[in-house]
Amino acid sequence: MTIHFVGIDPETDEDGCPTVWVDRSTSDLLIQGYEADERTSAQCEALSPARAPIPPGEGIIRVPARMVSIIRKACDELGPGVR
Q: Could you give the number of structural domains in the chain?
């Protein structure tokens, strides 16, 4: 299996919480987070260099700042060759 669990929101309430995994075969991060509200999504779209709407199949995901160390750990697990 190439997908590896890295960590979950330390303040989880056991009811669908932000989680981070890595896919070792592709060096991708897989992140579960909270869907951004419409206002936040609109602000992100407006700041996008392409100024284009978010395409189908993509979305703005909000990940709590307290998970930065988990995301760093995920990046470290992928190794120095990943940019």
A: 1
